TrEMBL record:
<dbReference type="InterPro" id="IPR025406">
    <property type="entry name" value="DUF4132"/>
</dbReference>
<feature type="domain" description="DUF7737">
    <location>
        <begin position="540"/>
        <end position="640"/>
    </location>
</feature>
<keyword id="KW-0175">Coiled coil</keyword>
<dbReference type="Pfam" id="PF13569">
    <property type="entry name" value="DUF4132"/>
</dbReference>
<feature type="domain" description="DUF4132">
    <location>
        <begin position="220"/>
        <end position="395"/>
    </location>
</feature>
<dbReference type="Pfam" id="PF24879">
    <property type="entry name" value="DUF7737"/>
</dbReference>
<protein>
    <recommendedName>
        <fullName>DUF4132 domain-containing protein</fullName>
    </recommendedName>
</protein>
<dbReference type="InterPro" id="IPR056639">
    <property type="entry name" value="DUF7737"/>
</dbReference>
<feature type="coiled-coil region">
    <location>
        <begin position="231"/>
        <end position="258"/>
    </location>
</feature>
Amino acid sequence: MPPEQRQPWPALVAFARTASAGKPSAKWLKDAEKHLSAVGAAPFREVLTAALPLLPRPRTFRLNPMQYGGDPNLLLDEFNALSLKGLLWMVPLASDDALTRAVAGVVESALKKVPGVGPRAPKIANAAVYALSRTESGAALSALARLATTVTFKGTLKEVHKGLEVVAARLAVTPDELLELGVPTLGLTAVGERVDVLGDVEARLSVGADGTHLGFTRGGKALKSVPASVKTDHAEELADLKAAQKEAEKSVAALAQRLDGLMVQPRVWPGEAWTERYLHHPLAGTVARRLIWLVDGVAALWADGDLRDVQGAPVAVAPAAEIQLWHPIGRGVPEVLAWRDRLDVLGITQPFKQAWREVYVLTDAERRTGTYSNRFAGHILRQHQFHALAALRGWRNRLRLMVDDSYPPAMRDLPAYGLRAEYWIQGIGQDYGTDSTESGSYLRLNTDQVRFYPLDAPENHAHAGGGSYEMWVNQTQQPVNPLPLEQIPPLALSEVLRDVDLFVGVASVGNDPTWQDGGPGGRFREYWHSYSFGDLTETAKTRAAYLKRLIPRLKIAARLSLDGRFLRVQGDRRAYRIHLGSANILMEPNDQYLCIIPGGKGSGPDVNFDGDRVLSLVLSKAFLLADDTAITDPVILQQLGR
């Protein structure tokens, strides 16, 4: 940068350090325009677009960590953070799509967790969200829509929703419509396809069930890598294609997650808007066309260039038609099985569990208890894993510290039904350091009841380390009784219990193959054994049903069979039974336990059943044990030889 261009920069950066308020005032923005004018919009964009992606990188010179507090090498210096905050506030005054993408990346980087601290720099994340909400472009709207799904930190998520409200008011649409309008096209001209001609090379960006792919052809012949002519003569177009590929991956994942969340809501779209925003949208269509929809009550799926019912007959969509997401609850078993068969025949991988979605209906035990469910009580969960899952599924939860304090249960608001769901949990243990992290957070939780209350009911609280929950009320409130489970809409009940099943299925210590001895002091031995080889939950039952269809297609099918709660594997050394809930293993004939610790990526077959990690573990272990004479791991061999 020439000296004459560098001159105004110190003044601009010094001014940026005055960004001490929660958001910029009108006067601050007016002064910012003067400094930005002196520097120039183009140089400002160029510098920030190059600099912001460097935020996740470590320090150039490492600092020695203090005994207490977070590692300073993972944190932002407060002096520099204030400057960055001010620079982000200026972005809407001079932004383009490349800078907007860089700002969206700042949110993710600033919210990265630092041990002992939490999110790295929430104020920087909030400043980036402010910049996106004030930037009038499709790229900014797309970034906000994606962040509304992916951000789990409460403070920043609140700012994202505020930002969406600002944009929605500016465009005179509802926040829900805004999220749909925020799905980018990224230059795709057909659903999942973009073709750019770069000299004598054709570049094709494809988006589908197997991810995004960027390929190049010359004269109809596929090329193994990016041609040199494209790198030199079309560097800018190539960079745009790569940025579009990266953005497509993030946007598709966020859209699938948002639609998965809408499975619990009675959302209805008019046919004309739904066709434009979903079915024929260049990017959203890659997700929508793999889902089953109700068109005026008729279930339909995209196949062979049209929407078709389960028998393959075309289904027309009138402009005023009522469109909803199909859910298996309330549908007959023959219909659900027919759709599973249909997806199988068409070879369609759905973006999330829909036809194979677990359904939870009231049990006799829940009818007897009346106002609460004990279906998922008495489990031991890893607190931090549970906390992350809860945030991902839209639950409100606070990490419990080993202190004399009270906490509300994990809660999920269901505004469409005027309900609040609660999952009662408490910390376990009293030994600081063994039962807690260094910062004092409980390592493990014990689970209790699931209850439902009116959305505006006062909150329950219980001591961090256990005790009964009590409803806290003020002078203007009265205690509210939990609602009878029979009064809860079946769809809301099923989706809440499905979430809780996920929490237990993923975060339970019973999934850890190394916990056969029961963990610290052997305290959880009885629970570990009962969970590791006990009755199957609905998720595990669905896993068994899927395996029944999958096994005949596997090359080791002759060695596999389903045996109640287990997948039985016939090896050459021994026969094995893999539990379908925990993926833990027993060896025949005396049910001797076999400990196999999961390896890294690539340690088993490439199976992705709607993100079901346990199914991947079950199949990975099955492939390993079916060829047990090829095992070389000395720890496993020692166990097999006993």
